[in-house]
Amino acid sequence: MAAAAGGGGGAKATVAEQIGQAVQSTSNLLQLMEQSSPAQIHLAKLPKNLLAKASLTKNTEQVLQQLPNVISSLDAFMDSSLQRKIKRILSLENSGLTDVFTAKSRS
After folding, report:
1. How many independent structural domains does the chain possess?
2. Nearest-angstrom CA–CA distance, 77 and 80
3. Of 8, 57, 101, 107, which residue is the least packed, with the fewest Cβ within 10 Å?
4. Can you give the residue range of the structural domain that contains 10?
């Protein structure tokens, strides 16, 4: 299982690297088009900070790697919280039933 998890991390890194390369290539292509195209006004409207978005892919990779742990922790918290609430409800029911039986036996 650990080998499979490690392989997934490598795949994510590869995908992040490929996305970064695609962003770099697109940025280079846009620069060439801006220099040679008669439609420079339209090209100027395209995002100027395309390269800055490459770091976003790396951040996304980190978030994806942390997501299983976050989900597991949230699941454990919800389970613990639910168990506490159920115990509290059962305790209230038991004390209520005890009060009812105590009142009947006194009558």
Report:
1. 1
2. 5
3. 107
4. 2-106
